[in-house]
Amino acid sequence: MPKGVSALELTLNERPPGIALTRWLHEELRHAVLDGRLRPGTRLPASRDFARQYGVSRGTAVTVFEQLLSEGYLRSQVGAGTWINERLPENLFGAKRPPVAVVSRPARLSKLKFPHPARPFRAHEPAIAEFPVEVWARIASRRLRRVTSALLAGGDARGYGPLCTAIAEYLGSSRGVNCSPEQVVIVSGVQQALDLLARLLLKPGDAVWMEDPGYFGAITAFTNVGARIIPVPVDEHGISVSKGKQLCARAKGAYLTPAHQFPLGMTMPLERRLAILRWAHDARAFLIEDDYDSEFRFQGRPVPSLQGLDKGESVILLGTFNKLLFPSLRLGYVVLPPALVDPFLAFRYGTDLHPAGLDQSILCDFIVEGHMGRHIRRMRELYAARLAALQAGGQRYLGGLLDISPIQVGLYTASFLRNGMTSREAETRATAHGIETMALSRFTLKRNDVQGLLLGFAAFDERQIRRGLEGLAAALDRKQGEAAG
Ligand SMILES: Cc1ncc(COP(=O)(O)O)c(C=O)c1O
Q1: Among candidates 239, 198, 238, 189, which has minimal Cα distance to 218?
Q2: Is the omega angle on the peptide bond into residue 298 within 30 degrees of 0, that is, cis?
Q3: Which of 290, 295, 364, 450 has the fewest CB atoms within 10 Å of its CB?
C-alpha cells in the first residue's frame, strides 16, 4: 500500500442499471459518510489508488472527490491528502434517532457504578494489587512465543481441553467434586453460566426457587427468560426446603449458594444439603450450586460441594476465577451432569462458540504449575487478617450501631444495623460519607428488610479498613450527624 494512505475497504453496492458512474460513486461515498461507515477524520486513498481499487478511471475518482469536497463532506490539503471532514454539519446525521425499543427489563443493579480504585467496603473485589502479575506475564510470554496453531484455531465449545482437565483435578481434590474433565465447560464466569442455563432449562412461566435474600445476578438471568421466581426464605442454615415445598413443590429447579450464602454468609449444613438433594430427586428438579468464593475459608476445613453428595445428577456446579484471581479475567466454569453436556454445548454455539484460547492456556499453566494454589494460600492469610481487622474495628467504632457477622469465609461479610435505620437509609448515609456499601434490602425479594449492610474487606488494607469504619460510624450515628449538621 502506498505510504501514508489509510486502508479504506469500503464495500460498494452494485451500480443500478441506467445510473451514471459518477453519480453512483458519489452517492455510495456520501451514504457511507452519513451512516457512519466512513468516520470523520478517515483519510482517503489518493485518487489514483482509489480509482485502481474500485475499477474506475482516475478522472471519475477526481470528479467525485471534488464534488464531495465542494459539498463539505471531505476536506483536503494540497500535497498531504484528503479526509472525511471532522466538522460535518450537524444535520448531516439527521435529528437524533428515537431510542431502540428494549423488551427485557434492565438488571436490578444496573444503576450502581463501580469506579476504580474501589473504596471501602466494596464487596465483590479481591486484593487485585496482590495478584502475582509478573508470574502471569512470564507464562503469557512463554505461551505466546510457543503458541501452537491448534490453540490459535480454538474450536472446542467446552473450552481449552487441558484447562478442563486441570479444573476437574483441582475440584476433585479441593472441593470434593465428582466429575470427569468432559463434564467441565469453560465460560466467562458465573453470570454467563446463569444466563445460558436459564435459557436452556426454563421456559416462560416455569417456577424456580430463589434464595430470599439472594444473588441479583441469578434473579436477572431467571427474569430475562420470563421464569416465575419463587422467593424461598433463608434461615440460619440456608434456603428452607420445607418452606420451598409449601410454596411450590414442583418447581423446575433452584439456585443456591450453599458454601457461603449470598448475602447473609452462612454455610449450609449436611442435613439441609441432603434435604434439598432429596427434594430435587423427587421433583426431578435441577439445583444450581454457585460456589463463587468458598476457597477463602478462614476457619475449619473446606466444606465439600453439594455436587459431590449428589447421586442423582441434579446438581450443576458453577465456579469462577474472576474473584479467585482478578475480576477482568472473565473465566469461570460449569460442571454439568453428563446428560446436560451436549445440550449445553449445542446451545453455547448460539452465543460465543468458546472462550478466548490464549487466556485459558495461561490460566491452565498458572494452575498446573502450582501458582494458583500458592496465591490462594497467601490470600487466605491476608483476607483472614483483614476480616479480623474489620471485626475488631467494628467492635471499637460501631458498638450499638452495627454488628458485624462472625462468619469466617469469603471476600465480604454481612452486618446488621442496631440503630433502627432501614438498610437503604444506612446505605444512603454511608455513600454520603464516601463509603461504598450495599443495603441488604437490595437482595430481598419478598421478605421484610433484613436491616443490614454488605461489607467487603478483601481489597482493603488495615489502615483503609480503620478509616472506612470511622466514616461508617459517622454515617450511622444520628447524634454525630445532627451535631455536625
Ligand atoms: C453470589 C455470586 N455469584 C457470582 C458472582 C459473579 O461471578 P462472575 O464474576 O464470575 O460472573 C458474584 C459476584 O459478585 C456473586 O456475588
Answers
A1: 198
A2: no
A3: 450
292 lines ligand 1 (CB under 6 A): yes
CA of 284 to the centre of ligand 1 (A): 26
Q: Which helix (H) or strand (E) holds 335?
A: strand 332-335
Cβ neighbours of residue 367 closer than 8 Å, sequence gap 6 or more: 163, 166, 167, 170, 373
Below-50 pLDDT ranges, the chain:
1-5, 485
CB 29 within 8 A of CB 20: no
First-to-last alpha carbon distance for the chain, in angstroms, is 69
pLDDT for 7: 53
* Dist. CA 84 → ligand 1 center (Å): 45
Q: Residue 382: which residues within 8 A CB-CB, separation 6 or more? A: 127, 130, 458
Could you give the CA distance from residue 84 to residue 73 in angstroms, rounded to a whole number?
6
Cβ(275)–Cβ(256) below 8 Å? no
Q: Is 421 helix (H, G, I), strand (E, B) or coil?
A: coil
Q: Which CATH number fits domain 374-484: 3.30.1540.20, 3.40.120.10, 3.90.1150.10, 2.40.128.190?
A: 3.90.1150.10
What ranges make up the beta strands (E) of 157-199?
A: 184-187
* Residue ranges per structural domain of the chain: 21-93, 131-370, 374-484
List pLDDT tens digits, range 383-437: 999 999 999 999 999 999 999 999 899 999 999 999 999 999 999 999 999 999 9
Helix-helix angle 133-145:357-368, to 10 degrees: 120
Q: Does residue 257 line the site of ligand 1, with CB under 6 A?
A: yes
Q: What's at 458, amino acid-wise?
A: A
**CB atoms inside a 10 Å sphere around CB 395:** 11
Q: CA angle 261-262-267, nearest 5°?
A: 10
Tens of pLDDT, residues 309-364:
998 899 999 999 999 999 999 999 999 999 999 999 999 988 999 999 999 999 99
Instruction: Say which CATH architecture domain 131-370 belongs to.
Output: 3-Layer(aba) Sandwich (3.40)
Q: What is the pTM of this model?
A: 0.82
Q: How far apart are CA 244 and CA 239, in angstroms?
A: 8
